[in-house]
Design brief:
endonuclease; Uma2 family endonuclease; two-stranded antiparallel sheet; Nuclease_put_TT1808; 5 helices
Length: about 200
């Protein structure tokens, strides 16, 4: 076990340690955890499409899209890196952590699908500023939408599944709509088992 894995760090220590280090890490329970690398072309295309749409639709808005290089603090000793997201907080050019994330987007991969749907979802829902969580299915035009509501039991509406290239996802907190045709632009769907 490396010395990095033996010490219980603070988030600040982790951020300093990570700076300039190759690869991408999350911070889980006071420990750095190397993230999986090697996203498929399909996964990468979807992430780029989501980021392009968010950037375009948020022009002139103080809220800004971010990539997986930017962090979301999900607990006092935990940092996650969603594939994409939107931060509506005040941003310093040197910030590494979203100050007020309101949207997080995860594109499923075979190796992380179950973890994303279970543990990460619970963590994201616990962040008070997050209002919308999107899980994108890369193998068919399908997105799972989780929305916070002050009126809903537990603070979150039931999961909503949006299916079909003619559909769109409204994100009321940001005042934008994301068409599935744009999210999946350039993606060929092949019948068969789930791919990443």
């Amino acid at each position: 076990m490396s010395q990095a894995a033996q010490k219980h760090w603070t988030i600040e220590e982790f951020l300093v340690w990570q700076e300039g280090r190759p690869g991408r890490y999350e911070f889980v329970g006071g420990q750095p955890v190397k993230m999986m690398t090697g996203a498929t072309a399909r996964h990468d295309t979807i992430v780029l499409n989501v980021l392009a749409e968010l950037r375009q639709r948020l022009k002139g808005n103080p809220c800004k899209a971010f990539t997986a290089d930017y962090c979301v603090r999900t607990r006092h000793d935990q940092i996650r890196r969603p594939d994409a997201g939107v931060d509506c907080g005040r941003r310093d050019p040197n910030d590494l952590v979203a100050s007020q994330p309101v949207l997080v987007v995860e594109v499923f991969s075979p190796s992380t699908r179950d973890f994303d749907r279970a543990a990460k979802l619970v963590e994201y829902k616990a962040v008070p500023s997050i209002r919308t969580i999107l899980y994108v299915e890369p193998n068919r035009p399908e997105v799972y939408v989780f929305e916070r509501s002050d009126e809903a039991l537990g603070g979150w509406l039931d999961e909503r599944r949006v299916v079909g290239l003619g559909e769109a996802i409204a994100i009321p907190t940001l005042g934008i709509v994301l068409p599935l045709a744009e999210i999946f632009d350039g993606v060929d769907f092949v019948p068969g088992p789930l791919l990443g």
